[in-house]
Fold:
Amino acid sequence: MLKKKNFNEETEIPIFDEAIIYLRDGHWQFRMYLPTERKYVVRSLKTKNRAIAIAKGKDLFHDIHAEVRNGKKLFSMTAKEAVTAYLKFRQIDVDHNTIVVGRLTTITAHLNHFLDFIKRDTRLRDLEADSAIEYAGFRLGENASISTIANEQSTINALRKWLHLQGHMSFQSFIFRPLKMVDSRADDVRRQTFTDDELDTVLSAAEDYVDAAQERNEDYLHRQLTSYWININAHAGLRNGEARQMRWSDIEDVKDPKHYKEELLFIINIRPETSKVRSTRRVICQGGGFLAGLKTLLKPKGKDALVFSIDGVTEFAEKHLLKHFYAILEIAGIDYRGRNIVPYSLRHYMITNRLRAGLQYRQVAKMVGNSASEIEKTYHHLFDDERIESALAERKPIL
Structure:
């Protein structure tokens, strides 16, 4: 209902007693108050003709009411603003230890791809359920894998559901074209991990890379941290976030020498707040000598100091880890780009190595904090060479 009762008939015309059109600088404008959003809708009718302005004003009035009935907001935020708000909401989950920092980083990366597709300045009110239907094609054009796209679409719809609950959008989920899911995990892992010979080459390259440092400065320490990261995680199979947040207080030596010969063992107590699955686990690993070497290098000031940190307080930044990790792989002659090898590949190596040593899926699962079924799904295809050997084995004569 318009509050104003008296109008200048030459320059002001009410529309259905709820809106008004008026002349401004010779052109007709439309104005209507929306109680649900406590704002005025102001639009230019782009005409100087009175009759045309009245007709356009009535059409716009009906269009606005239709959008309001369908749950659309006329003063909606942009896609970029929506993602920013959602990430702030998910940061609370990190603060409350509901998710780990690495998970938020992944969510951020997924939604940045979505913004690239949907365009950052797009208003939420202009989006429909099928607005992202061609998202998979867009990402396939950027060489994303099917499994990656599926994960991204899940994250996008989590955003969409939250926006719906907040009253910013009228539908709960986007419609995506069906993805032809191919279980390529084993092939991906086979490409992304190291063979024993490759890891030996990488470890040798890491030594040369550290020795090539010009002086014992911060860059030298970053090289050392990367070298120890490779050695320790090839034995421990930690997730990157677990390694980055590991403290010296989380580590114990194995006291009883009867259970091993020359290999130094160590125990890692993974805290739930650093674990992706938010659960505690206790792991006994080989490679204790590398931890001892790192401790001698860093001389941590206390048990609460971070293991992979120059000062014990600041986490080893991913950009420094990746810079030196890939430099080492270059020296080792590893095609890390073509095979998509990343620091997480050390975890793949450790799991594969333990399975090849004869451990059962459940035993390895306890070591790395996965379910036995997930380990079996991902890694059971990796041992075709052993299956071929079994198939070709000849029967031994009975003596």
User: Anything to note?
Assistant: Residues 50-69 form the longest helix (20 residues). The chain has a mean pLDDT of 85. Residues 199 and 234 are 9 Å apart (CA to CA).
